[in-house]
Design goal:
The protein has about 800 residues and is an alpha/beta fold. The protein is built from 27 helices and 24 strands. Strand 21 and strand 22 form a beta hairpin.
Length: about 800
């Protein structure tokens, strides 16, 4: 039934059927593949003897009969159980006897009804009915009005996609103001499955019925949109393909007559020659020739031909046996490293050791180095210097936020657009199989439903496995053992254990004031002068001014903010010169504020000291370097409550509990009664409150500040401490000692209390730094107190 014709036929002037009283007992006619709704006028072709008898029975009485839909349309002689319980009472408006003995009956739906029971089953059905009426809707709500508009819009879109849209039809839909009637009209023309249409018919609440129709319309709209798209694309593609095929055949015929060479054959022959000449493993060459044979027999316009051609291009472009020659001059390499970076002696020593081993044993496998340190200490730039010192190509790949395993292993060759992973892509970019390959931010690799990239890196970063690394796209092994992999991270805590075990950790802790000053003079300031287009003589900055920038405008382990501040000074000088000012500017400590504004940080040595009990200075280690941590304790009257503020993590909260238990165990030493703690409240606060804090090394500082507040003794302001505490007062070892020592030095603190077990780590601290600081190793809290009070 055409949706346009059926809707326009269904809404003419309806005969007035309200005056007809519907009998309780009616003949029933089973219909197939159609569900009749209220107000429908529908023609039916009646052929079964039982159905003809039911129609004749209705015609002899009041022309009314009930129509019920068959559950299974294939049953020719349905029984009582084969007909849905809810149907429609209809009025026979017109009948016509056809030559083949069938009847053509025009019926109009009158009222929904349910079959109460079957009074007769032979020779036709007579049923007792129970009329069903829609629930009262009352005033149309805003939600219902919106739903009705949605249904109209959906119907309009479907009709438009089917190409049967008409303005008269939309007038009919817009004139219907009853939600139930609108639902019945639309669903009767949706061509739904019988069971779905029946489920709508059985709903007696008009709004619920309309909502269900809206759901079906959404589904139909999606199907219609996809159908229209497929038809359009198929038609367009068919026309395009036929035209191209015809033109191509003509072109081939002309070339054959002229005796010209076929370009495709020439291209395939060129590919074969390249594959023959390219040095690659035997299995790779065998697979490449196999794919070339497949390409030769494919139609050039086939989608798979593009995939195979791309695959062959990748095989040809990958540097299977192409290597750059290493520069094995140890002294020259040391000069390059020293010229590019100031300090970082440990890293330089490790690189020179590798070059020495490489000189003596050329078959040695590349190391897997992992530079760990705060941002801005030169991890990435150090990788570039290593490549320059060795004479190798350099490639950098960022792993931060990577969640797809295919980024490492590549995509399988099952669809157009698949490609190798970023390891193979990087090797193709540099054109050598032995570059310095830097993987940045390995501590920030993620994972989700697409796989775990860190697990894929286990094979890449293992010298015992990566000699036959298999990319999913290539589907053949590639030797990565000649690649020198270098990874970087801000911290090792988030790197999975098996992956961390494969790498040699080299820590870059940060720079002292003297080192920052030297780096600024040698590298940062000249680079900023050049980038801002000013002459080196146009700006004069002495060492004291640079030291003030470092101490008052930056507080970091690295150098990024220092370079930004120097760049800011250079930009202001560049503007003044561009505006016609004088040619030379001298920047001093006195004039620095004009260029950079007021100081952002006041060193601890210049701040007013708060000298009172309950305040101690600790040291913390974060991913951006070492930090100073102040802990304050206040004793108040109360009921033994412990309050912790400053956004402390679980580990720091446990450290506070342990410190309190230790102090309570020393009640006699503190000369307080055991009941004293039950009559006070203790408040421990760690500024700044807006920054989350956690870690195991604050126990000794908490215990000291708590002991100070309880005993009334003041803690020395020039002493900082780090270490975890047990309930018995033992001091446990910590990590990040070098970073914490640098943080103490930046804050003007000269004495650091450390766990005795960390005494062995002092050798890792540069001698210049050790000379400026006094380290006091302690085993328990009893050894701490004489040094801090």
């Amino acid at each position: 039934m055409n949706i346009n014709d059926s809707i326009s036929d269904a809404i003419p002037e309806f005969p007035d059927l309200d005056d007809h009283e519907i009998p309780e007992v009616l003949p029933l006619m089973a219909v197939r593949d159609v569900v009749v709704f209220n107000y429908m006028i529908i023609p039916l072709f009646v052929g079964r003897p039982s159905s003809i008898a039911a129609v004749n029975e209705a015609l002899t009485k009041d022309k009314m009969l009930m129509l019920g839909t068959q559950k299974d349309a294939t049953i020719d002689e349905p029984g009582p159980d084969d007909v849905y319980e809810v149907g429609m009472v209809c009025m026979i408006m017109r009948t016509l006897k056809l030559p083949d003995g069938r009847l053509k009956v025009l019926v109009q739906a009158m009222n929904k009804a349910r079959i109460a029971r079957f009074e007769q089953t032979e020779p036709f059905f007579i049923v007792k009915t129970e009329l069903l009426h829609d629930e009262e809707v009352g005033e149309i709500s805003v939600e219902t009005e919106a739903l009705m508009r949605t249904v109209r819009d959906q119907t309009e879109k479907i009709l438009s996609l089917k190409g049967i849209m008409s303005s008269d039809l939309m007038v009919i839909l817009n004139n219907i103001e009853e939600p139930g009637r609108l639902a019945d009209l639309v669903v009767s023309n949706l061509h739904l499955k019988t069971a779905e249409s029946q489920s709508v018919l059985e709903l007696c609440h008009p709004v619920e019925r309309l909502r269900k129709v809206s759901d079906f319309l959404n589904k139909e709209l999606e199907v219609s949109a996809v159908q229209a798209k497929i038809q359009s694309e198929a038609k367009e593609e068919m026309g395009k393909t036929q035209r191209e095929y015809y033109l191509r055949e003509q072109l081939q015929a002309l070339k054959k007559e002229l005796g010209e060479i076929d370009d495709r054959a020439l291209e395939l022959e060129d590919l074969r020659n390249k594959l023959t000449k390219t040095k690659m493993p035997p299995e790779a060459k065998k697979e490449a020739l196999k794919q070339l044979k497949r390409l030769e027999i494919m139609h050039p316009d086939a989608s798979e031909a593009t995939t195979v051609r791309n695959y062959l291009d990748w095989i040809l472009d990958i540097p299977w046996r192409k290597s750059s020659r290493d520069r094995i001059d140890i002294k020259e390499a040391k000069k390059v490293l020293d010229a590019d970076h100031y300090g970082l002696n440990e890293v330089k020593e490790r690189i020179l050791e590798y070059l020495a081993v490489r000189k003596l044993n050329k078959s040695t496998k590349g190391p897997i180095l992992c530079f760990v340190g705060p941002p801005g200490v030169g991890k990435t730039s150090l990788g570039k210097s290593i490549a320059r010192a060795m004479g190798r190509k350099f490639h950098r790949m960022s792993l931060g936020g990577m969640r797809d395993e295919a980024e490492i292993r590549g995509h399988r060759r099952t669809y157009i657009g698949s490609m190798p992973g970023r390891i193979i892509q990087g090797l193709k970019t540099v054109g050598a199989n032995n570059p310095v390959f830097m993987m940045d931010e390995i501590d920030k690799v993620g994972s989700d439903y697409r796989g775990d990239p860190s697990s894929a890196l286990l094979e890449v970063l293992d010298p015992e496995q990566n000699f036959e690394f298999t990319d999913h796209y290539l589907n053949m092994p590639f030797d990565l053992s000649k690649v020198m992999f270098i990874t970087t991270a801000n911290m090792t805590d988030t790197i999975p254990g098996p992956l961390l075990d494969r790498m040699e950790i080299i820590r870059l802790s940060g720079y002292m004031l003297e080192e920052k000053l030297e780096i600024a003079k040698r590298y940062l300031l000249p680079r900023q002068i050049e980038q801002n287009g000013i002459d080196a003589k146009a700006i004069q900055i002495d060492e004291k001014t640079i030291q003030r920038i470092i101490s008052h405008y930056t507080r970091e382990a690295g150098l990024r903010n220092l370079e930004r501040e120097l760049g800011k000074v250079c930009r202001k000088v560049a503007r003044r010169i561009a505006e016609g000012g004088r040619k030379t500017y001298k920047i001093s400590e006195r004039t620095l504020d004009k260029y950079l504004g007021p100081p952002k940080h006041i060193p601890e040595t210049e701040q007013e000291k708060i000298d009172q009990p309950g305040l101690a200075t600790g040291l913390a280690w974060t991913e951006v370097g070492g930090e100073i941590l102040y802990i304050e304790v206040a004793i108040l009257k109360g009921k033994g409550k412990l309050t912790l503020t400053g956004q402390l993590g679980d580990v720091m909260k446990e450290s506070a509990q342990a410190a309190l238990s230790f102090c309570r165990s020393r009640s006699k030493v503190l000369k307080v009664d055991e009941s004293y703690f039950e009559n006070i409240d203790i408040h421990i606060h760690v500024p700044a409150g807006a920054i989350p804090k956690d870690g195991p090394s604050a126990g000794i500082t908490m215990a000291t500040s708590l002991y100070s507040a309880l005993s009334g003794q003041k803690v020395r302001q020039d002493v900082a401490m780090t270490g975890e505490i047990t309930l018995r007062g033992r001091i446990m070892p910590i990590g990040g000692l070098k970073e914490k020592a640098l943080a103490a030095l930046r804050a003007g603190i000269t004495t650091i209390i450390i766990p005795a077990e960390n005494k062995k780590d002092l050798v890792e601290i540069p001698e210049k730094l050790r000379k400026k600081l006094t380290f006091i190793p302690v085993k328990n809290m009893d050894q701490v107190f004489p040094h801090v009070f």
